C-alpha cells in the first residue's frame, strides 16, 4: 500500500553535492494578488504539503517493512529517519504512529496521498488507532471518518474523534476519569533556581469548574490592562500596547484567586462563578439509569445518536459524573432535548440577557465566524438579522448566535450570517459569496 508513494519514477537521480533549489517552484506562492488569491494559494500549497507528508510516512513504513534500518545498526525505522532527517523525537514518533495506523486504514492513506485529508487529521486518527480497545471499530468506520474530516475544521474533527472514542470505549473513558479523580493532586514546588511551579491534576468535572473560575479572573486581568492602555493610547489601542502578555496575566489571575481566598471568610464566597454543563436529554437519562442500576442500558450509537456532554465551551465530560453532580452538587446543568422550549422575548428587549443570552451561547461552543475559535463563554450574543430591521431582527434564540467582539463589529461591514436547518453556520461576504 505504501509502495506507490516511493516507487514513482524520478526524472534523474539527486546530486547531493548540488541539490536542486526548491524555492524556484514555490515563487508563485509568495505574492498573492489579493485575499481570495491568498486563500487559493494556501489551499494549493496545503495539498502539496499533504502529499509530501504522506510520502514521508510511506518511506518510513517501507524502511521498516524491508528492515533497511538494520544495515547501519539503527534500532528502528523511526530512529533511522529521526537521525537522517534531523527530526525531533516527537515528530519522528508521529510519523511512525501514522505509519502503523495506515497499514489498517488504506482509504485514509490514499486520501492523504491525494491531498484530500490533512496531516493533522491523519495524526489524530493515528492516536485513536493506538487505543487497542477501539482499533477494530475505527477500521470499520474508516469511510465515516474520511467523510467527517472533509467538512469540519481540525478542532471540530478532534472533538468528534475524542467523543467517538469515549463512546466506543465508554468503560475505559469512565475508568480513566475515575482514576484521574482518585489521583487528584496539587503541589507547589520550588526549583533549584528559586523559582516556583505548580503541578496539579484532577478529573474532568473538577477541572471544568476550576477552568470556569480561572477564565473569569483571566478576563478581569485583560480588561484591566485594556482600560489602562486605552487611557494611554486612545481608540487606536491594540494588544501590543498592553502592559502584560497573556502568560503574565494568567499567572496574575491565579495569584488573585489565592489572595482573595486568603482574605475572605472560608465559609462564604463573594464571587459566584457558575459552571454550565451541557448534556442532551438522552445522555442524561441513560447516565441516570446507569447510576440507578437499571440494566441493561442501551449503549450510544456514535454514528447516529445525538450526544453532548461537555462544558459550554465544548470540553468533554463523563456523563455519570455530570449526572451525579447535578443530583447532589452545585453545578448548573443544562439539559437539551428535542422538546427544548424556544426562548422568545420579542422586540420589546434590545439585548440578549439572562436565559435568552445563555440559549444563544448554547448554539455553538465557539464564535460562529470561520476559523475563529474564541470560546462561546467569551463571546457576545449577536443578532444574526439586525435588531434595527422591524420585520426580522427579533431578540430570540433562532435569531441569535455567539460572536466574539471583533467579528460582531466586523459583521457591520456588510457581512451576513445565517444558520441552516442542521445547525451549521454560514458567513457571507458583502458580495454574497460564502467564506469557506
Average pLDDT confidence is: 79
Give me the secondary-structure category. mainly alpha
Strand-residue proportion: 5-15%
The gyration radius over C-alpha positions equals 26 Å
What would you say this structure looks like, in words?
The chain has 436 residues and is mainly alpha-helical. It is 47% helix and 9% strand. It contains 16 helices and nine strands. The strands form four sheets. The protein has a three-stranded mixed sheet with strand order 4-3-5. Strand 8 (416-419) and strand 9 form a beta hairpin. Helix 2 (35-66) packs across helix 4, helix 4 (89-102) packs across helix 6 (119-129) and helix 11 (204-233) crosses helix 12 (246-263). The longest helix has 32 residues, at 35-66. It is globular. The two termini are 33 Å apart.
Note the main attributes of this structure.
436 residues, mainly alpha, three-stranded mixed sheet, 16 helices, disordered N terminus
Secondary-structure map:
Blueprint lengths: L2 H4 L28 H32 L10 H9 L3 H14 L3 H8 L5 H11 L5 H6 L1 H9 L3 H15 L1 H13 L2 E6 L5 E6 L2 H30 L12 H18 L12 E5 H11 L17 E3 L7 H10 L3 E5 L17 H8 L18 E4 L16 E4 L1 H6 L5 E4 L5 E4 L8
Parallel strand pairs: 3-5
Antiparallel strand pairs: 1-2, 3-4, 6-7, 8-9
